[in-house]
Amino acid sequence: MTGAGTAAPPWDVVQWFNTERPLVLDALRGRVIVLGAFQMLCPGCVEHSIPQLKRVHDLFPSGDVAVIGLHTVFEHHDAMGPTSLRAFLHEYRVGFPVGIDRPGGGGDPTPLTMRAYGLQGTPTTILIDRDGRLRRQTFGHLSDLQLGAEIMALIGEGAAMTEQTGSAANVCSTTGCEMV
Amino acid sequence: MTGAGTAAPPWDVVQWFNTERPLVLDALRGRVIVLGAFQMLCPGCVEHSIPQLKRVHDLFPSGDVAVIGLHTVFEHHDAMGPTSLRAFLHEYRVGFPVGIDRPGGGGDPTPLTMRAYGLQGTPTTILIDRDGRLRRQTFGHLSDLQLGAEIMALIGEGAAMTEQTGSAANVCSTTGCEMV
Amino acid sequence: MTGAGTAAPPWDVVQWFNTERPLVLDALRGRVIVLGAFQMLCPGCVEHSIPQLKRVHDLFPSGDVAVIGLHTVFEHHDAMGPTSLRAFLHEYRVGFPVGIDRPGGGGDPTPLTMRAYGLQGTPTTILIDRDGRLRRQTFGHLSDLQLGAEIMALIGEGAAMTEQTGSAANVCSTTGCEMV
Amino acid sequence: MTGAGTAAPPWDVVQWFNTERPLVLDALRGRVIVLGAFQMLCPGCVEHSIPQLKRVHDLFPSGDVAVIGLHTVFEHHDAMGPTSLRAFLHEYRVGFPVGIDRPGGGGDPTPLTMRAYGLQGTPTTILIDRDGRLRRQTFGHLSDLQLGAEIMALIGEGAAMTEQTGSAANVCSTTGCEMV
Known about the structure:
The structure is a homotetramer.
Chain A: E1 13-17, E2 32-38, H1 43-59, E3 65-71, H2 82-91, E4 98-101, H3 112-117, E5 124-128, E6 134-139, H4 144-164, H5 168-178
Parallel strand pairs in A: 2-3, 3-4
Antiparallel strand pairs in A: 1-4, 2-5, 5-6
């Protein structure tokens, strides 16, 4: 897992799907965030990343892990607008929240959140810990075995943290149950 | 993860491969053990379980996780003897230790360790924590995402223990919490 | 393979990709046609049908087999327009000709060629013989083994046909070489 | 498909499974033969070749295509004896006939039929036409699409032969054309 963990940059999203209200990092404090940067016409995203994000969303309890997609369009902008994305999310049965990264303009096709995170491309899997710190940012494929392990390591940090503040039972009963 | 966690039964092995000396639970205390019960002619073992055990063996540091195969032959005994197993382990590039479960005799084809663990069949994935307690026993397929998460949860217990000068162990044993 | 084989209905295409001039059945007479009806946001098409059509396009000589995609959009029309399709074909490295089926209008979302062939949905694999007769129309998945066999059966018909007109050597030398 | 097509060498088999009587080439004259040389502990055979042979066995009518396995053990002889092979065929649900190639002895671990065909190793897929001529011998992986096409090409030869009262056979043998 990447080192110390600086604060994850905020998300600059123009439109959200699969969520009633816009999502912001601070409101998710206390949960591990699995952020998947993708493009709907990126073959690697469709074949590997989206299905993996769905598996993570299915396996881990939403109280511990928030799975979020970020549509970082940096090519073929006209081909991947909101209407196309909405149909894509419907056809591919994507149930977790997905935000559209804000186009940057100024002759740079890279959207703003993608710039803030310095992403190389799609798919990129980003892990943010319960304190909102950026802990991993991997461009390309990440194995389920490693991703599952790293997510649980971050969940465990939270458990330990809370433990130290004395309410271990609740935290543990939550995190313990997930895995049954 | 499965419940309270009783002490894992000892292994009754007639012959070991890929290890200089016989393995015993006590000597592995402090490491998480991923024990894979298999048969070399069990298609599900060859297609899913063995490759998954190899991935676990490759990903996790041996200081934290010990991957061990247990050849629990309960059918076609003549077809899966030590000579055949040795060739199988060589051809399938299995590098982790593998033990041959002791035949039970007495008209019962089930070998002794398989009986002691009450295994339903193969493949079965068994997780034993750093304290030698049985924490999961799953017959059939376990996803990489879940297995990776559960292994890391057990690794985390050990980490927490060290951090918290032993008090964590009591908390866990009373609450049955895996996460502390 | 479906029975006697009636004449395949003509294609009503509004725009072609990956071909300099519009394709018509009569101009393809003499070649076996593998026509794949798909939608760019149909998961089954993206996962199975498109890759299979690419394999067919790579394996069989273009002199014997013409692989053609037909974009039969019957849902999410705004999401799968020509601009999106062009980007899709580029990102998914689709090199064979693809035509956009003409929207039907009149309150019926089904495009005209899709109606003429009576397609149930996407993906559908259609085989047309060297004489322009419809020989197979299968909705859903068709195995590579069966598809390869049926294509070769249709190629063989042509070979036999030509044989009877005396120029067997040329035909054979072509079809024989493909498979080397 | 590979060249002129010489007579396929006879099979020297010490024991047959899944057939009431020993199989010989002459008795199979008139059928296309798909002969799969394998070893039960060869990973590539278990993962790709055996399942592919089963698919061929399921798809093509037995009157046209005979699928036969040849157990060509050239290593770990003690690990892959008849008892082990019998269990393997049962566990992997192999329903087509399988013969054990005769050990060569004389210090050469290569069995006799494997020598006669000059096989490089396992898996090797061998195609023999309706006239008992060797038409393809491929070491390693052969795609379903290509295998299906080549089998049907050989089936078609027979069909053509029947249609054309025997003249086709001569044409083919002189031009080396597989398609007539």
